[in-house]
Amino acid sequence: MESIRIEKVTIADIEKLQNIGRQTFLETFSLPNTEENMNSYLSSSFAFDKLKNEIENPDSKFFFAVLNDEVIGYLKMNSGKAQTELGDNNALEIERIYVSREFLGKKVGQLLYDKALQIAKERKVGYVWLGVWEENHRALAFYKKNGFVEFDKHIFKLGNDPQTDIMMKLIIDFSATD
Predict the structure, then answer these.
(1) How far is the CA of 157 from the CAs of 42, 75, 78, 169, in angstroms?
(2) One of 41, 98, 113, 143 is an active-site residue; which one?
(3) Which parts of the chain fold into alpha helices (H)?
(4) 143 classed as catalytic
(5) Closest by CA position to 64, among listed 103, 26, 105
């Protein structure tokens, strides 16, 4: 397999971002949720203007995982006021890491996670945090394997369905060498 590249998303990539975002969210969450709630979330969260504003926000960053010119996953990170909840200037939020179903288990998520951790270290933040749906056992295991610990819970609205996310964080160790 050729090597996977991590590329920064730009305004010119909005359609690709919409496509990979919708595809991976559907692949991950369509079975346990209603079509109505999925459609509501997808239409609002991946609307052109919303993504354009997020890409233009200096406190949000998107990256694609690309293999043979095909986008196979993506990462969204937030700092400062762009964070969905905490808003701690000493923190970086991983809002999304999603990988196409056919590439799950092939280290694509790890590459995207490593990119987020690299940026967190460059910015010298104290910790990285995220929220994971309590029923997303694969993601929970992934983050625990990477050293994240649970610290709280919050409600995530999928359409009209309130769901519980487990909030997790990782303290950044600057003494470790890469």
Answers:
(1) 12, 20, 19, 21
(2) 143
(3) 14-29, 35-45, 48-56, 108-123, 137-145
(4) yes
(5) 103
The pLDDT assigned to 163 comes to 87
Q: In the prediction, which pLDDT does 28 show? A: 86
At 38 the three-state DSSP class reads: helix
Other Cβ atoms within 10 Å of 86 Cβ, number: 15
Q: Which amino acid is residue 168, in one-letter code? A: M
Q: How many CB atoms lie within 10 A of CB 164?
A: 12
The pLDDT, as a whole number, for residue 178 is: 47
pLDDT at 29: 87
Q: What is the dihedral of CA 121, 122, 128, 130, to 10 degrees?
A: -130
How far apart, in whole angstroms, are the C-alpha atoms of residue 84 and residue 59? Answer: 11
Of 95, 97, 41, 105, residue with least CA distance to 64:
97
What is the b/e burial string over 121-153, where b = at least 16 CB atoms within 10 angstroms of the residue's CB? beeebebbbbbbbeebeebbebbeeeebeeeee
| Below-50 pLDDT ranges, the chain | 178
Q: For the full predicted model, state whether its pTM sits above 0.85.
A: yes
Rg (CA), the chain: 16
